[in-house]
């Protein structure tokens, strides 16, 4: 029986894909110098680390409450800033609001570029400019959130019913009125939902931003790691874990209520 | 032959699906099961190859108790029973060929199945079955490229390839338009008359039931309330049992 | 959503935002002067093109390739290990022993809860600084992320065609290979590509803690206030992410 008559007729094509993937992997292994045996050779290091790590230093907890609150504040503030700057750009990016192709292209370009910058790199740069501290963390989160949410808001605006907008325009409403009375009401739920999602992501992200000096609980982690106090590191991680869990739960609950 | 002995099914929430059902279906019959929604038609049909379990009683298929069968025995019994679903239940992204061929899975070891090694004879069976339902040109098409009627015919082809003795069809035409429905019922009838298979169909169209079956069984609230020939199932008799609801045409039934 | 509910929630949110805005520590702004900011901007606008490619293997181009390699390996390891784990975590594959999928999901949630950075720090301690630590960090984190999504897809896969296979007398593994896996594979492949996009971003970042790739040179450039280098690195990162994203999007379109 010929191959093409059986259920395996796609086999040559699939084989090619597998070979390409294997080639990519092979190149990557060589280039990165990955050596799996290293893991086993250094396993005693792993055990030393784990033995300290698995006994969290709960007595240290009072010291991390303040940084924890800092982290939460940073996230709230940063998300807020990011969303209120992201929303106007999203409007500018949508043809439904802005009738000007050049403006929408510029806006879309800005949205596209900001999204690609990893938050930690952003934090490192901002720390160099603005110095170590909470506010730098806020700025990082704001810019990062701006990138994340502007795209989502833009997509939400693009998928509304154009009829309501045309109706407003036909009675001579100016741009602001159109935005508030025709577009905004339709996307309010999505705005809230995406903001909550951004907040979830930011809580996670802000916990590590402190590592480069942008304030919050990451700072403690950095110093503890430097001192080899892995028991404190695990306490911090545990607290982060619980915090993320709570935020996810709350956020999930609210987002369900929204839809 | 299928023997249904004093079968009762009670759902965990207390709802009674089937109540003291006693029934025997002989080889070669074409049976239509009618009844309003919730009368237990689906429950009964699915119990016949144990897609549903029953609470009390026993079902014996071709001399073997399917109710008491072990996992292995169950798989063996199922090889000889074909099931056609209302939603076609094909794997949409797979080709027609692979879907129909999967009817033979019961005859292959797990290893061979995973590697996809099927015998030449089985590939031939697939081709013949698709010829029978007029779909041989769609051998390598993806199932989501086919219309509803065509997909249902693929399901029928699969039961042919299974070489099943008994074909169970759960509302096979409920999702199809009237013209296609007739085509599907014709195919099922051919399985019965030309290939000597026992066919049991759940159907809510009285008209189709009368036109194709040798025997009509009526259920109401899980109980047997009618068992006779299409001639016995007059409008008057059915209205007496079910009320006029039962005679409403397809489009009016929700 | 009721009006009263949304009003209370909005009120709480406003309070929280105001509190955050007012109580944040603005002291870091003391270091900020407009002129130094201007200097930074000027420096950033003159990317150091020499650093882009000089054949030394330490230039931006080679480092970005290395970064991509780290991402590919990390994603591959993650996907490879996530697959069996996701099977342990899918509810619908275990009709009676629901303890097993619950445990599986728990393990996956633990793995994804830790930011990659933490894994990177840990692995740098274990296998030393370099790309390998980055690969492991991304790999372990992605096992959690992909495992959870794979399991969710498996659970969402239609039970209908699975029943059809069951009714012809197929065994468990046969139904897996002839109904569930064909259904979820395109979606899972698409998910793997999405995570590759994320991995590229991570790989660029993790170098900050010594896990290889372009992160470490970037941090050095920042600390040295060498804004020309910073700018060229940023441009390279942005371009690479954009390219990988669009390639991935094209492939994903083909999968549908």
Detail the topology: elements first, then pairings:
The complex is a heterotrimer of chains A (259), B (254) and C (256).
Chain A (H helix, E strand, L loop, with lengths): L10 H22 L3 H6 L1 H11 L7 H33 L7 H16 L2 H12 L3 H25 L3 H9 L4 H35 L7 H10 L3 H29 L1
Helix pairs in contact in A: 3-11, 4-5, 4-7, 4-9, 4-10, 5-7, 6-7, 7-9, 8-9, 9-10, 9-11, 10-11
Chain B lengths: L1 E9 L5 E10 L4 E5 L6 H8 L7 E6 L2 E2 L5 H9 L1 E4 L11 H6 L8 H6 L4 H13 L15 H15 L3 E5 L7 H16 L4 E5 L3 H7 L2 E6 L2 E6 L6 H8 L12
Parallel strand pairs in B: 3-8, 3-9, 6-7, 7-8
Antiparallel strand pairs in B: 1-2, 1-4, 4-5, 9-10
Helix pairs in contact in B: 5-6, 6-7
Chain C lengths: L2 H21 L10 H11 L15 H30 L9 H15 L2 H12 L3 H26 L2 H9 L4 H35 L8 H9 L3 H29 L1
Helix pairs in contact in C: 2-10, 3-4, 3-6, 3-8, 4-6, 5-6, 6-8, 7-8, 8-10
What does this molecule look like?
The complex is a heterotrimer of chains A (259), B (254) and C (256). By secondary structure, chain A is mostly helical. Helix content of chain A is 80%, strand content 0%. Chain A has a single domain, classed as MetI-like fold (Orthogonal Bundle). Chain A has helices at 11-32, 36-41, 43-53, 61-93, 101-116, 119-130, 134-158, 162-170, 175-209, 217-226, 230-258. In chain A, helix 4 (61-93) runs parallel beside helix 7. Chain A is extended and about 75 Å long. With 254 residues, chain B is an alpha/beta fold. Chain B has helices at 41-48, 71-79, 96-101, 110-115, 120-132, 148-162, 178-193, 206-212, 235-242; strands spanning 2-10, 16-25, 30-34, 56-61, 64-65, 81-84, 166-170, 198-202, 215-220, 223-228. Chain B has a 6-stranded mixed β-sheet with strand order 6-7-8-3-9-10, sandwiched between helices. Chain B has a 4-stranded antiparallel β-sheet with strand order 2-1-4-5, with helices on one face. In chain B, strand 1 and strand 2 (16-25) form a beta hairpin. The longest helix of chain B has 16 residues, at 178-193. Chain C is an all-alpha fold and 256 residues long. Chain C has a single domain, classed as MetI-like fold, CATH 1.10.3720. Chain C is built from 10 helices and no strands. In chain C, helix 3 (60-89) packs antiparallel against helix 4 and helix 6 packs antiparallel against helix 8 (172-206). Chain C is globular, with a radius of gyration of 24 Å. The mean pLDDT of chain C is 85. Chains A and C meet through helix 1, helix 3, helix 4, helix 5 and helix 6 of A and helix 1, helix 2, helix 3, helix 5 and helix 6 of C.
